[in-house]
Each structure stands twice: as structure tokens, then as C-alpha cells.
Amino acid sequence: MNYYVMKNNQRINLLDIPTIEFNTLRAQLAATNLRPVSFFGSDWGQNVKLFVVLADDEKGELLVVSSLIDKNVKEYESITKDNHQYHMFEREFYEQFNIKPLGHPWLKPVRKNQDDYEFFEMEGEETHQVAVGPIHAGVIEPGHFRFMCQGEKVYNLEIMLGYQHRGVEDLMVKKPSNQLAESICGDSVIAYNMAYSQVMEELSGMEITNKAKLIRRVALEMERTAIHIGDLGAILGDIAYQMGKEVFGVTRTLVINTMLEISGSRFGRGLITVGGVNFDIDKDLSKKIVDVLNNVKNTVEKMTRATLKSSTVMSRLEKTGVVSNEIANELNLVGMIGRSCGINLDSRFDFCDEFYKDFERKSFNATNDAYSRFRIRYKEIIESISFVKKLLKKLEGYEKEDLCVPVKNFIPNSFALSVVESWRGELVHVATTDGEGKLSRYKIKDPSFNNWYGLSMAVRNNGISDFPLCNKGFDLSYCGFDL
Amino acid sequence: MDNNLMLTLFNILILLLAPFFVIGIIKKTKAFWSGRKGVSIFQPLFDTIRLFKKDRTISTTTSWVFNFAPAVVFVTTLLAGLFVPMINCYSIINVAGAFIIFSYILGLGKFFALISAMDTGSSFEGMGASREASFTTIVEPAFFIILASLVALSGNYTFASLADVIKSNGTFGILIVILAVVSLFVMLLTECSRVPVDDPTTHLELTMIHEVMILDNSGIDLALITWANGIKMVILMALIANLIIPLGIGFGLSVGLFLLTLVLLAVIIGTLESGIARLRMSHVFEFVFVMSSFALVVASLAAVKMYGI
Q: What is the pTM of this model?
């Protein structure tokens, strides 16, 4: 097997990455059981260079390999045929470079050309189509959902996205900035900005202070806490359980208001910058954060206990929207949703750094349904709160350090990669520089990219009125997918 | 002033105005339970006035049905309300067999609401209409059984005999009234789309029942439909009130007790909605069947009372 083995948050020389013949690569990918975390093309003169990054989660290693495909050859043999985990990646690659994967079973548009989208259709008595969106009744992002139903039962759901495609990857190459990075997906500001900043720092060989690293991780865990609490409320709101909706809603505000005290923005905008962080957390603030989080933890525990005692809530959550472990594996579901289906992936621990390594990785008893998606959030809220407290304790030891180090120029011919566990899951940013030290490609993979198809699977054979509950449980990003 | 004229005026006032305050009180109760201040109880009234000032937007795919239906829904509901007794068992139109006319007038309104929803050609609205229709098929027979048993007990087939049930049947009557009230309350939750059957506050098109049927209505149409829905709630509450408020306690006390019952029912609905989640669509049927089973018990008790064992 021919790979270049690297760690998370590491820069390697672009020219060190082995470039192999496509058919060899194809055979290699079909044979391995390592999952892809990134799969993208880059302009390479007459050719397109295809980069594939695989994750060895047990060893905590990332394996990089590349292959050249001639631009004049408009097709290649699909990898998805043998390994369904490449299904979305190949569709995206086809859309970006117009090189067709032959034999791809579901070659549909990803973000562009929605007019050409051919929906899967069923015919027969009592079967009917329900088209929802892209404009929805509530304040949610645009996306089109096409249900094939028989009566109230859903047979198939197709999700067509791309309404918010802004060309973020190209913008990143032209004019990279923290402001752009944190605007890609408004509910994962910290995760996106952290991944971006880490990639930029690697590309220029900067070493930031431990203090900055700790503050970033505190913010990341607080973001996770806040969004998860909000989601618990939203899940309960969808099933009209008002008590839970209101209590969790109020509690989330406490967390984001604390974020406001740290960085001046409730979602942590402007906190992280290339080279470090912009705002310090001093002793007083640190104590305040701990107090708020203790209070939050108390409320969340009480409310969760009350919620899960309610028979009406349990009857809605249990056995709704089940995604079996086999399907979850086949689709390569990641992050919190993957964990709720029994896939134990968590890039905080899989690609462990010096701060997370002493934290305990607790197991989760997955039941694969909406109930599981509720409990995983609860579990992660409690864990994140304890992580924040431990991180703040560690921060005391680095009081004297600087917040920020000076920015350097990019090193030519570099390939840098950063995997950050956002609250949704594995967020991957990859960047390469050319021979002159300019950015030549920026690739983002949001966890939603893997997980949207999981939602389609979850609603199969469920009532169509349970779709919102499943959707909320997954709570995937539209703009993170559309880029 | 003539006594009957006063009662007639009172009935009409209740029918037209109480809906806003009942909805307002429900909202206030929910706000209370969630620790919010909530909107004023006049807000539903203001909303309706605001909607009356607005233009109608009518989709090009609709026919005359869609245009016509909101008026039919409003008029039929109001008309049905004229048969319902409020104070001292006085109803504006009092005829034998009124409950049959009453149900079918309401049924006509519902029919127009359903076909108007289908008329828009939207896939959600068809779905909502289908849900609404299927729940009605369960609610309607149960409602007939209950009302038929209650009026049969008194021997005179008018709504006015509702208050007689307790008085003339003693403890037996109390038992029957309790069961009838519970089952009318279930009907109220179903027909007026409250939790746990429907969620009036949701924005999720796919889970709605009543709300989804009126997605395309706007302005005055929307105002009429929501008003009619409120009137329907008041009508059902009035039936419950008539079952439990005794006759011959004087005008002032009757009015007081009647209004108190409306307020209490609204508070109960608000509290219920704050504390429980909505049922899964497939389980709603089981919930609505509670009404049917209670109705059958009421019928058997009435039969036992009337014919002995």
C-alpha cells in the first residue's frame, strides 16, 4: 500500500505525496477498510490531480495519496461501485471537474445545476409525492426535500441542496481570512475558524502558544455545549413539548452569553485568528465561566430527567428514524450522528492532541433512533462542560504566555490538513500551496457532507409527520454542505 | 328588557367575542408555564382585526371553491352556534333534533374547508385534509352517540335538555355527565387542533393537520377561518358548560359560572399543552378512540337507566 502517512494538524511537502496510476489507486481504495475523510481534485496543468485522504482512526494517522487524471479523458471507473463511502465525494468531484465516474449508481448534482436533477419516482395507487422547500414555513435554511409516500408512510426521501452555494472554496484561495472562515457556517463559527487557522498556521510553519490552543479548545467545547442544548430544546419543540423547549432555550442563552463575555460575540466571532486568539480568559472570567456552566449543567440534568420521564415524549422519540449500524457504516456517518448509531468516531480522541489525551472517552449505548440522538447530546453536554472546566484549570499554568504570535508567509509546495471535531462531527480543512507559496487549493468537508444521506435513510418507513423530528435530531448544515 | 332578547344578545356576544379571549387565555397560560410574560389576551382579537385590513392573495391554481370556502366555514360555524344553549339552557334556535342539524351544519363547513384545501393543489394541504377527514370519521359517530344518549334520557330531543341530565337522574346522571364531559373534551382537542392531536404553534408543514389546510389563505379569509375555529371551540365548551351548570340558579350566577367554565377549560387546555408532547400521528387515532369508547359507555348507561337491566 502506497501512502504518505501524516498526523492531524501537520504540514507535509506536496511533492512527497505519492502519485500513483489511477487504476492502482482504485484497487487500493477498494481493498482497504479505512474511511475517506477528504477526496478532491486540484488543477495540475494538463491534468487534474486527485487527492485522497484516508483516516486510520485506531492509529490516529491520516494517509494521503494522489493520482493524475488527464483532463482530456472525460471519465474514469467509479470507486463508489465497490465502496459506497465515496458516493458523495465522487459526485462532488464530477461536478467540479466534469470527469465522469463510470458506473456511479447515483450520479446526481450536488450543489449546482438543480434544474437537471432527476428525482427518483415511484408509481402506483396511493403513492404520492410531497415536495417541501426550498422555502420553508419556519426560519430555516433553504433545501428541497422530495418524499415518495404511500399514505402517511415515507418510502424514499431525496434531498436536493445547493441553494446557498457561494463558492467558498474559490473565495478562500483568492482571499483567505478569518472573517470568511467563520461565516461559512454560522452555527460552527469556532470549529470553522479553528480549522482554518490551524491550516494556515501549518502552511506557514507557525507554532502558536499553548495558551491560545487552550482558549480555542475552551471555545470549541462551549460551542458544542450551547448548540447541543439548543438542539435538545428544538427537538422537544418539534414534538410540541413546551416545557423542554423553553427551559433548554433559556439555558442555551446562558452559555452563549458567556461566550459574549469572552469575545464580544455570542457565537464567538472574532475570537480566533491566525496565530492565536484575540481575547484572553483571565482568572475572574474563568471563575465566571465555571459558575455559569455549573448552573447550566444542573438545569440540563434536571430537565433531561423530567423529559425522559414523560411518556408522551418517550413515545415520540423511541424507535423513530432508526439508522442501523450497518447502513451508518456503509455511508460513513461521522460525528455525533455516527456515535448515536454506534460508530465510535471522535476526532478529538482519534487524532488526539496533548490536551485531550488525559480526558476520558466514555462509551455510549447507541439505540440508533431519535432517542439515541437526544441522549448523545445530553452526554456530550455534560462531558463538554467538564472538559471546559479542566481546560480552564490548565490555562492557569500558561498565564504568562502571549495570545498571538506573528504571522509568517506560506511555505511553497505545502499540503496541510486539519481535522476538528465540530459539534456536528469531523470537520476537515485541507489547503495546498504552489511553488511560489501562494494558496492553490482550499478544500472543506463539513460533517453534513457525510450525514445528509443518513437522514434519507432514517425517515424510510417512518410516518411523514415524523420527518421534522428526524431532521432536527440530525440537525445538519445546509450552508456547510453548499459551501 | 325582554328576558329572551337579553339571552339572545348574550348568546350572540359570547359566540362572536369569546373565541378571541379563550385563545388569548390559552396562550397566556402557556406563557405562564414557560416562564414568559406572554402576549396580552386581546392579541388574538387584534390579530383578527389586522387580518381584516389586509388584502387576499389567491393562488392562480385555485377555483371558486377556494374563494368561497372561508365564508362558508364561518357562516356554518356561526349558524351551528345558534343552536347551542349558553345560559339557562337558552339557545337562539330551539328545535327537537337540533343536535343532528347542528352536526350537519358543522359538517358542511368542514366539507368546504377540506375541498378548499384540496383545491390549492398543494401536496401538504391534501395531506392535511386527509388527516382531518380521517379524524372526523371517528369523532362524528361518537359525538352522535353521546348527544343522542343525553337527550334521549330527558325524552325531549332538544339541546336544552342537557342540563336536565344530572337533575333528573341523580348519581347515575353524574356518572354519565363525567364521561360525557371527558369525551367532549377529547373532541374539543381534536376538532380545534390542540396538543396532543395537533400543534397550533408549529411551523413544520409536514406535521400539521388544521394549520396546513389554511396555508394558502390570507387576509380576510384567514381571519374568518381562525375566527370560525375559535367559535367552534366556544361551542364545544358551551356544551360542556351546559352539562355541568345546574338550572334555576339565577341569571347572574349562571352567567358567572358559564364564563368561569370557559376560562377554566382554556386554562386546562393551556396547562395540558405545556406539560405533554404531541402524539405520533399513528397514535392520534388511539387517542381519538378514547372518545368513542366513552361514548359507548355513556350510551350503555343511558340505556340501562331508561330500560332497566
A: 0.90
